[in-house]
């Protein structure tokens, strides 16, 4: 498994927490940071998936 997939999952989790805290405290900046971090995590996860597929194809 690519490290990008792991880092992406962490970013998505942290981003979700930030977003929830931002909503609960009515902190728009924190909520926006959380949304951005979740998006970054999604992108990292997709990059990691591609890396894994390329690695699998090379092994064949």
Q: What's a concise summary of this model?
A:
The chain has one domain. The protein has 60 residues and is mostly helical.
Any descriptors?
60 residues; mainly alpha
Helical percentage = over 70%
How many distinct beta strands?
Answer: 0
- Report the sheet-strand fraction: under 5%
Overall mean pLDDT stands at 94
Can you walk through the features of this model?
The chain is mainly α and 60 residues long. It has one domain (3-59). The protein has helices at 3-25, 28-59. The protein starts with a helix and ends with a helix.
Write the layout of secondary structure elements.
Elements: H1 3-25, H2 28-59
Helix pairs in contact: 1-2
């Amino acid at each position: 498994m690519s490290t990008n997939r792991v880092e992406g999952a962490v970013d998505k989790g942290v981003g979700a927490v930030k977003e929830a805290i931002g909503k609960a405290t009515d902190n728009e900046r924190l909520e926006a940071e959380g949304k951005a971090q979740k998006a970054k995590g999604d992108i990292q996860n997709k990059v990691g998936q591609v890396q894994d597929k390329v690695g699998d194809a090379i092994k064949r």
